[in-house]
Structure prediction request, 290 residues.
Amino acid sequence: MARWKAVFKKLLWPGWRWVVPAALLGGASLYLTFGTWLGDTPFAYISYLLSAYGLTILIAAIVPPLLSVRKVLHRVPLAHRYLSDRYFKVRSALTLSFFINVCYAGFKLACAVWYVSFWDGALALYYILLCAVRVYLVRRVPENEQSRNMVQELRNYRATGVFLFALDLALSVIATQIVRDGRSYAYPGTLIYVAALYAFYSLTLATVNIFKYRKFNSPVLSAAKAVNLTTALVSIFNLETAMLAQFGADQVELRLIMTSCTAFVVCILVLGSAIYMVISANKKLGGLNS
Prediction:
């Protein structure tokens, strides 16, 4: 067993002299897969494995230096509070996300009016709903452990589930239009690679936080993380449509199959999360009131 652990550790942390070439090789193989005829050969499957491994060991190599930076940040009072006070951290993240979302919603709403675009209008509606749920949660995150009210938190958790139903409906409209009309998101130049890193980072962080925040037994914090997971899943879907449009524009059938399957999975996952939140909150509230 010790031998296998040593092998696994060596594969996950091979050192920077292997990390950088592996990450570059993974990126280059993806470019060849999506940008050339090699995408229709077994090389594509090899490139997926190479890129996944390269990204994994790159993240593993970055984590230790980040932990050192974290120790330095704890010396700054505001940063220390953000890192150590989970309620303050969630409120801060929700507030920042709200301002970003409201700017994007305003931009898309202006585009919808100016260009008489149903597509932009649907996107604006989605981000307006996202802003609404973030404002709702910001106002209901407790100040500290002493100000918690479990009954109220469960009601907020249930209400967030209802919000997710509305988000899923808007998302379903957008996904349907993407599949039916061949719509897609567009990133200029090499910005698509930055978007890819951000999308996978957001999904990884959101998934980890879902389980991490469960141990605090705070429904409102779990609700905030469920919303983050929803937006991360949507980011992955957006990224897929952009990559297919940029690297597989001539493969119409593949684009249709991939976008349809991913849209279906994302919408079902969001719907499932909403149903679980509502049912779970109702069951726990019934237990507290009985």
